[in-house]
UniProtKB/TrEMBL annotation:
Residues 65-139 form the DyP dimeric alpha+beta barrel domain. The lineage of its organism: Bacteria, Bacillati, Actinomycetota, Actinomycetes, Micrococcales. It comes from Terrabacter terrae. GO terms for molecular function: peroxidase activity. Keywords: Iron, Metal-binding, Oxidoreductase, Peroxidase. This is Peroxidase. It comes from the Bacteria. The keyword Glycosyltransferase does not apply. InterPro entries: Dimeric_a/b-barrel (IPR011008), DyP_N (IPR049509), Dyp_peroxidase (IPR006314). Its cofactor is heme b. Belongs to the DyP-type peroxidase family. Residues 271-294 are annotated as: Disordered. Pfam families: DyP_N.
Length: 447
């Protein structure tokens, strides 16, 4: 584990959306573009670079909204980036998520053959996201972005997804989201988890030392790779009715439904972690950013407070694996940006209403394989690391569908049987969000 000198980040070159938290409340929009002409594509990049540069100069004073621009491997090729340069990107990025779906557990109804078009196809070239605290500011920035391509006839919007924070402030499953992101050294943002040192910036931003003390493999030339980050984009449909029905079937009371749901998630609906509030929800704790992420699992290794197989604990085992010589949790951290889409399912409804609802997940990191792919395959899909090889994440499912879920208890543990899949993958992409100098370089590329 590296402890070297603190890193100073070139924040003026890093796209602001890579490190900044989304606002709360929020509204958002995701656009996917296809480029039919390399010249006009580079003109689009030049215009977007100007917009992002102005945003980095101080967006909060004028427009409290964040825009992020990223490219798929097919998108970089469509801009005219030579194959010799594309070959310097990691295999996972060049292959794309759809081609790696089998390994990721995106099979059956979650398989690429069922994904929304054009997700997972070579028709996706540019991804643009805008997040703002309200509709007015969202539309202001979205209109500026639209003006950048309105007169470029070869730039086509092929997909759009609008998102917004639900009135409850929680996900469609009823739990507060956006908690548990790592503190990043050099980001300038407040430290929330006082129990662990901030994670080295090189775990998330290319060109800086990571937790091993080395630099992550970076695309060449340096101007293209430095200050960039890889983004994992996934649209996940949630079957809230099935989730409610299952809890109702296995619980003896409404109070037990709430407890079992919290055990599956690892937190109460307010965001209060089970490790700090094992017996009942604590809304004050859940709402306090100085406390709701400042905890570990080392004092609860057997999982009597928070089961080892709970969703939040699987995604980040924290200090529970400190004695595992083969696993350094700090090498597998992710920045998560989750947003909800679709309306809430009405309270108490147990049958699906046919409306599409769920979560757009965006993960940022410098190592696609050892971060997102490791967490998804080894911790979410599998149960070997918790000693339950036949169990997957109780919310997201994975390798074992249906799966079981063990809740340690004295004198007898409880095992929930045959949990169905509550989440279906509707599509995803691996993208690269370059730094601002890299965007300028791409816009001026001479092919």
């Amino acid at each position: 584990m590296s402890v070297g000198p603190k890193t100073v980040l070139e924040l003026d070159d890093i796209q602001a959306g890579a490190l900044h938290e989304r606002p709360s409340p929020y509204v958002g929009r995701y656009l996917l573009l296809q480029l039919h002409d390399a010249g006009e594509g580079r003109e689009l990049v030049r215009r977007l670079h100007t917009l992002l540069a102005a945003q980095n100069d101080g967006p909060e004073a004028e427009t409290p909204a964040w825009m992020t621009v990223a490219f798929t491997c097919a998108g970089l090729a469509a801009l005219g980036v030579p194959q010799s340069i594309l070959d310097t990107f990691p295999d996972q990025f060049r292959e794309g998520m759809a081609r790696r779906a089998q390994d990721l557990g995106d099979v059956g109804p979650s398989g690429p053959e069922h994904w929304e078009w054009p997700l997972g196809t070579d028709a996706v070239h540019v991804a643009v996201s805008v997040l703002a605290p309200d509709e007015r500011h969202l539309e202001l920035v979205a209109e500026r972005a639209r003006q950048r391509h309105a007169d470029l006839s070869s730039v086509e919007v092929v997909w759009r997804q609008d998102c917004y924070q639900l009135p409850s402030g929680r996900t469609s499953f009823g739990f507060k989201d956006g908690i548990g992101n790592p503190d990043v050294e050099g980001s300038g943002l407040p430290v929330r988890n006082r129990r662990e040192r901030p994670i080295k910036a090189g775990e998330f931003i290319l060109g800086y030392p990571d937790e091993t003390g080395s630099l992550a493999p970076m695309p060449a030339p340096e101007v293209l790779g430095r200050n960039g980050t890889f983004l994992v984009f996934r649209k996940l449909r949630t079957d809230v009715a099935a989730y409610r029905r299952y809890l109702k079937e296995v619980a003896r009371s409404r109070e037990e439904e709430r407890l079992l749901a919290a055990k599956m998630v690892g937190r109460w609906p307010s965001g209060a972690p089970l490790t700090l509030a094992p017996d009942s929800d604590d809304p004050d704790l859940g709402a306090d950013p100085a406390r709701n992420n400042s905890f570990g699992y080392r004092e609860d290794l057997r999982g009597f407070k928070c089961p080892a197989g709970a969703h939040a604990r699987r995604a980040n085992p924290r200090d529970a694996l400190e004695d595992e010589n083969s696993v350094d949790v700090r090498l597998h951290r992710l920045i998560r940006r989750g947003t909800s889409y679709g309306p809430m399912l009405a309270e108490g409804v147990l049958e699906d209403d046919g409306v599409d609802r769920g979560i757009i997940f965006v993960f940022a990191g410098a190592h696609l394989k050892r971060q997102f792919e490791f967490v998804k395959t080894q911790w979410i899909n599998d149960g070997v690391f918790i000693g339950a090889s036949d169990e997957s994440d109780p919310l997201l499912g994975g390798t074992h569908t249906p799966t079981d879920f063990t809740i340690p208890h004295v004198p007898v543990r409880r095992r929930l049987r045959h949990l169905p899949s509550f989440v279906t993958t509707r599509g995803g992409e691996y993208c690269f969000a370059p730094g601002l100098r890299a965007l300028k370089w791409l816009g001026e590329l001479d092919t």
